[in-house]
Batch of 4 targets.
Target 1
Amino acid sequence: MELQPIFSPPSSVGNACFRMRHQICMSMNHHMCKSDARNRVFLRLQSEYSFKISRGSIYCSNFSENNPTTPSISETTDAKVIYSVAPAMGHNKESHPECNSRVPAIMDALEKVELTSKFRGSEVIELQSLRPASVDDIASVHAKAYVSGLEKVMDQASEKGLIFIDGSGPTYATPTTFQESLLAAGAGTSLVDSVVAASKVSHNPPVGFALIRPPGHHAVPKGPMGFCVFGNVAIAARYAQRAHGLKRVFIIDFDVHHGNGTNDAFYDDPDIFFLSTHQDGSYPGTGKIDQVGRGAGEGATLNLPLPGGSGDIAMRTVFDEVIAPCAQRFKPDIILVSAGYDGHVLDPLASLQYTTGTYYMLASSIKQLAKDLCGGRCVFFLEGGYNLTSLSYSVADSFRAFLGEPSLAADFDDPAILYDEPSKMVKQAIQKIKHIHSL
Ligand SMILES: [Zn+2]
């Protein structure tokens, strides 16, 4: 399959994006790349960025000899969070919600509330010198023709500065997109290495968090989709199986949109359980409640569409009555999380009512689930989240959950903007999914 660039952006989600661009632009700061910077080599962008944000973190010289991206065992003994940063500064389109100010906004918030290694010493570790994913890693999920096709269209991206590679979203590419997408996927697999290594010497290994973009969960095996280039979480799932012999992978996707790409990659696979909660009727329209997997994989996909307006109460019930029992029955070897923060009540792209406190609860509960079920092996992957403030404070509160510290959500959340959740419809959806999956 040849990847065909699209040169006129269609609307759909794009319209919603553009409606909100004023709000997003107002939040953009000096991290924004100027257009001439697009032609810089991505590694240079990456290293400049890392230099700025990583004071106090671990450097290459401290890494174990076998794998240059994995901190040594002694370095992870006290760690409660280990994160990687791949902000894709060259992959950017002005006024697009999936822009290059997202990861820097998170890093700024983490610095501001003193949650980086500079303030936390060995409790919080940032991985350095990330290894880009190999083409074989990517091809464990995506068609090789797509991978080589994307590399080829980088020439056109260089010529034009920016091209569209998929109509939905739309999904754009710049001259650095291919390399930066490899780096994003590699930042995820590197964390899998670190968390697995730490779990061999500790019952309480650090939770991994890949602060990466472009996001991945809409990218289908044959190509890009919905702002996503490579399926970062899906690639990490295959990598965990292949590189570490972790056969059973449980993927939780709490992004407001259905993770259709991950869904499709493992639809007939009984060893990778994909569980997605998402807003009913939102992009891309897949993830109906009766989509449960196929063939040998039947029952290993769970899709729970939630009515618009669902919020903290709904998600707490879903966690207790659906996510936890489902994971307990599956008995995973590792839990991977598509962590989208666009279900936040302040997010411009959807209409759920999650709060910063909801994300704290999810982070804390999923960490505990991993501790109970799979030696604490758990890695979060950044997906959506387009209000830079709610995104960054929700990620920060997720870090607090991993550290076992109290939530500071009350300082950020404003209960006055919330309205009644559609509790009757939520209850019906939960009853139905429990019946379908015999929970
Ligand atoms: Zn999303």
Target 2
Amino acid sequence: MNLVRLIYASTLSDDTTFDDMQNVTASARKNNKQNGITGFLTISHAYALQILEGDRGIVSSVYNKIAKDTRHRNLTLLCMTPITQRKFDRWEMEYCEINDRHSDLIFMHGSSRHFNPYNLSAENALSLLSELHDQFAPATTSPSAGTTG
Ligand SMILES: Cc1cc2nc3c(=O)[nH]c(=O)nc-3n(C[C@H](O)[C@H](O)[C@H](O)COP(=O)(O)O)c2cc1C
């Protein structure tokens, strides 16, 4: 398997609701499990930042599908990097909302207290997501080990 990590930023469409995001997460979990993809999705007000890890060909085609989804727009690829090991291997897709409580963390991994994923370098996006992932989904409480590559 040619394992890769892909990170992108996007803007939620004005009419995208909380229920829409619940549906997104449900279909992402089902599809990603079938596709051997693991990852993490963070949302803050208007913005989304998502990481996908898995086989290069599959990650590319899932990204192309996600890019056509009208529930968000202005997708910007922050990186697609070959990796030897997954960092986000515990969840097919976990979802976390970023809010004011995370402002110190956002500041630590970016330049401002306001979450704007378009301003993040790939390195900062990865470190922010890793920390949120660890806080949100500690290894000991994980319900599934995901598929490691
Ligand atoms: C922000 C966002 C993230 C998404 N992430 C995923 C994902 O990780 N995997 C996935 O299969 N679909 C994801 N989707 C949904 C896809 O765009 C698409 O609706 C879904 O894969 C279609 O699934 P279905 O063919 O089972 O109906 C995402 C959509 C949005 C708006």
Target 3
Amino acid sequence: MKIKDDKNGNIFLVVSIITIIAILILSIILINSFIDLSKINSNTIESETIQYALDDYKKNIAIIGYESLKEISEEVITTKVPLKDSKKEIKNRIQEKLDLKSLEYLNSQNIHITSHITNIANDEDPFYIDVTVYINAYTENSEKTNYRKTVMEKISIINLKDPLPVLKCGNDESFSYNQTHVNYGNSLANYLKLHDQKNYEYYINASSPFIIKKCIYDPYIQHGIGVTMKNCVENCYYHESADGTCYLHRLEGKGDCLDYGMETFIIPAIHTPNLQATSASDHVIFGYNSYPGTSFTFNTYDGINEVMFLDESHKSKYGLL
Ligand SMILES: [Zn+2]
Ligand SMILES: [Zn+2]
């Protein structure tokens, strides 16, 4: 019996030891997995924080981009000095502002964000400019998790001022502008005379839009219907045009460029149809190859004709033939 008891005691001891070892192993496994889990959790939280900051930063590119374009265009209009390289100037201005934004993230959230603008280009829609930015983000405690991303933001140019008329005619003292229109006084007639255009005097006191607005009458062929053309002129709209100048080149004072751009109409102060003078599209007037058009009435009020000069090709584009 004694031996049996001893045997039982031994078995109990062995079983106890095995159980303790098993519990120890299990605990170690559990503790390890808890550590892993909390690590994953903190990593997830951290990656979510960075992701959130990146999304927010991305939104800021569009706002900062528009602010920069607005500032630059205002400066060009005030100084009447064209930009030498609009892409470079825009790039530098946006970069400065993005660097300041990065500093804000570092100070407030301890997130390091560095960004580098890799490209400024015309969008396929000439009413937008594309800004491409390479972004790198990390936090101090992140385990070397760098978030790298290249993003492209479309920056609208709508409601910005058009610097082209100011850069072409703004030095003439009879030139003026208000919140909606450019009034050329004698400046445009002088400009056209200088460029050997016939009947330049018809453009004395002509006017044109000053703020970029996209024409809502698209397809453009409907300008020939009813009062559409009158409404278009009154609303100071701009149109897409393969021959028209893009906004980037307008900032450089170029009247035409190879990009897919925009055009608007310059309206003379005369009221007589069937006269000949330079065609009214701003890329024809300010471009290298100016050509004539015939004045036609697009609206009549109180027996007075509102006319503009247009060539056949533009008349066809706008459904006016
Ligand atoms: Zn229009
Ligand atoms: Zn261009």
Target 4
Amino acid sequence: MFGLERADARSVSRVEDFLREQTGEAVVLDPVHLATGLLGNAVAALARARAITLGPLICVRRSEHEPQKSPEVRVALERFGSLFVHECVHVWQYRRDGAMTFLRHYMKAYFSGIWIAGSIRRAGRQSAYLAIPAEIEAFRLEQVWQQGAEVIARREAARGVEPEVRT
Ligand SMILES: [Zn+2]
């Protein structure tokens, strides 16, 4: 009912390989847990986010579940695409920096961003969020992943192969 599960090993190791290649660091993610039911939805909604990562737990909002995928599909990369990669970057940041240091830096950057924006309204919160160094890093890597996925999809389409992930 709460929809708590461990992310499949294949998705996790693909993202680990990608992050190692991109950062040159010995990235270890496993185990990554997903909260995709009521709990995950509630926590992400509370944070007003598509998803939020707390240590090794990724809470995903219900609206982010790929609608055309049947519930039997348990492959995290197929279900959540580059959002899974983005949240895995946060899983790694927690491990790399230590949870307390990560949260302290994250919150400090967020609230000083709001102070700079001079507003806690939506636009102020959004610009503060996008200026957090941990988010800049996660969005950058998510984008690199996304571009790679698009190149593969185009190549497969050109060869007449059914793409593995439809976006
Ligand atoms: Zn993020």
